[in-house]
Amino acid sequence: MTLTLGSGPFSGNGAGAINFSLDDAPAHRLLFEDYPRRVRALVGGHTVLDSTGGKLLFETDIPPVYYLPVEDLDGDSLEESEHTTHCPFKGDASYWHLRVGDHLAENAVWLYPDPLPAAGWLEGYCSLYTDSVDLWLHEDEPVRGHLRDPYHRVDVLESSRRVTVKAGGQTIAESDRPKMLFETGLPPRPYLLRADVLPGILSASETTTHCPYKGTAGYWDLHVGDEIFEDAAWSYEAPLTESLKVGDHLSFDGEGIEIELS
What we know:
By secondary structure, the chain is mainly beta. The protein contains no helices and 21 strands. It has two domains: about 30-140, Domain of unknown function (DUF427) (Metal Binding Protein, Guanine Nucleotide Exchange Factor, Chain A, Beta Complex), CATH 2.170.150; about 155-260, Metal Binding Protein, Guanine Nucleotide Exchange Factor, Chain A (Beta Complex).
């Protein structure tokens, strides 16, 4: 998706026509770009990170990673670690543990003290694993899931295209009034009203997932004849703003599921 994943120009499988050559460009590409938002990270109510000078590192086939000036970390919460790693594109990384009271996140922070020349702009910046803290805030809004990519977007459009959904070869849903969701780097996906789904085949699953662009999805098993298709349908009961139109609609995918779209 976006610049570095899927069919994006920085991915390993970039698609689309261009009017220049990438023959001389490295196969693994890096872009370090300003991220002009206030970003904070908290552990037990204690702020361990507060920065308005952050950057996003876009790297081929890797989701964007947030970096911040080292001085924007709470130095009193850091403990030196002997752990190191090597990246052939950025250099040798050093690590710090993050300790706040009884909370210890080992090797939570990394930085490149002497980055390779091609990534020299990383000097003075560090990054923090997202799951090493209790809460992330962008400005004053909590962040769930991975960091939102500014080059990623979602559009939901009304459509009259004919959609047929089959499970195990049997038609279970048909509609000529789908909502078509277009998401950067992904194929178009139809969402159907529940009224357009065969009655009596849905049972709620305990599975949930979270998308930073659409919200929290609840899943449904499909009971078709003697077969059960687990987590084959999902819906966003309280979608985020850019996906409001798919609220209370269902989409389908998984083994044995076929979607025919005219």
